[in-house]
Amino acid sequence: MFAGLPELGISNGEDLKETLTNCTEPLKAIDQFQTENGILLPTLQSALPFLDLHGTPRLEFHQSVFDELRDKLMERVATIAEGKDEERYGKLEELLEKSFPLVKMPSIQPVVMQVLKHLPKVPEKKLKLVMADKELYKVCAVEVKRQIWQDNQALFGDEVSPLLKQYIVEKEAALFSSDLSILHNFFSPSPKARRQGEVVLKLTQMIGKNVKLYDMVLQFLRTLFLRTRNVHYCTLRAELLMSLHDLDISEICSVDPCHKFTWCLDACIREKFVDAKRARELQGFLDGVKKGQEQVLGDLSMILCDPFACNTLVLSTVRNLQELLSQDALPRDSPDLMLLLRMLSLGQGAWDMIDSQVFKEPRLELEVVTRFLPAMLSVVVDDYTFTVEQKLPSEEKTSLTYPTALPDAFNKYLQENRVACEIGLYYTLHIAKQRNKNALQRLLPALVETHNEMAFGDIFLHLLTGHLTLLSDEFGTEEFCSAVFDGFLLYSDPLLSTLLKHLFVAITASSLLGNDATSLAHLYLGSFSHSSLQILSSSVRLDGERHCTAIFRSGLWLGHSGTFRDLSRRHSCVVFAVCFGSLSCWKVNLHFRSVHLSFDPDWSPSPCC
């Protein structure tokens, strides 16, 4: 407790113990010790006996004086550090040398930490002592830790790693949030609101104005993105830069070559649209990458790979295509559209670029513009034509039927090209948002086979299930259910667990919006081609009571076991969901874990209630 006092020539408890052990007159020895180590003010000598008469212990008096002096000293340290005196840091270093031996004393430690905090460059010897002592390292200010971290990447990585994991968990949790609707989804929060998240604020504080620490975090993000392919690390890269921008940390923003590009793109994300003016600015930044600086394309590609950036670019692309259609113009004639495709291509190629370390813009396939986009526009024209036909008077109508097949080029590039696939998926979302049942039934089967199974990614399924809540009335028709479930959602067994998570979220969201969640649950989980599944779904009570034995006791399971067994091999997850997941799932918080479901043909259920 009193470590370090002897080094400063101040007596401690051990000195008093030795004095009392060796003295012949203890009272005189105590009086002399108090005189030598007390507050040496002549005017105070007469006041101390007066305090004794009032029963005030000397310890209490000295402690109150000590606390007052300590607070004044800490204020003085802050004042010196904020001043303009050229010798201010020399004074602080001198004070540090005198006080550091007492750093282990709880009462003196705040003063030492205050001095360390305000020194722009703490002596290396002192930093090593702080780093070696876990207790000192824990209590020292983040300003001191920055000086330790910049020369200890492993230690900094240990501090940052939990935050990065937390960030990914939060992003993935947002994708399965029950607070889902067409008005509130993963992309609803504004960029500035997202930057107020705990992880981004902590990382910003840890970095401060230290360029070296900022570079370390960016390297961590590149490495993790390369290792996991998780695009949320790209989001964090952009959010971190813009958080430093919000705080006007020019020391970092001025040296990051992506700053102005990210700033402009952030404004586009806020508006969810890339207008002509900002498109020219973004193109200027891309065209301004000079020879020998191509490595910056790696960071630019990560920023464009951010799902929020990609969402904005594709929404702008779909909107641009609609405008071209109204103007009878070709896609290749639109400079803004070509820029959007260029940025999409750069973002989609981020992982390949960082992995190969070949920093060169990926070349957009010309046929995406000359074949895929015209094919997609032909689908839009078919839909417009049919819609206009339906609005004509009955005597003017023809026998036109809604087309079911898609152009070969459309299907081909959905499977072979990342940019084309992304545009096709967002066009599907656009159709669902418009509640266009016919067009949706036409498009969904084509999404079964897409480039790298992008149609079964969490972000697209999150948006699609939210949009499908708008079409709850359409689930009453067998044709629409067959297109949604048999034609798309239930096509791929390995992805059923992920699909069911999104379906449960949609059911929960529908209930929160005031819709009939019971009906939607039956429609989502009971609209299958086999009668056993329909009976099973309709037999489960959705009134909040956890009873499912009626199915088993009624003999429905056993009565249909022969035909049910074959279908269960394919839809085992769905059967599980129908039996157990639909029990008022919108009234409880579901926590999904990775579960492997296998079907035993010889298994028979026992009553569970």
From TrEMBL:
This is Negative elongation factor complex member B. It comes from Oncorhynchus kisutch. GO terms for cellular component: NELF complex. One of its GO terms (biological process) is negative regulation of transcription elongation by RNA polymerase II. InterPro entries: COBRA1. Coiled coil: none annotated.
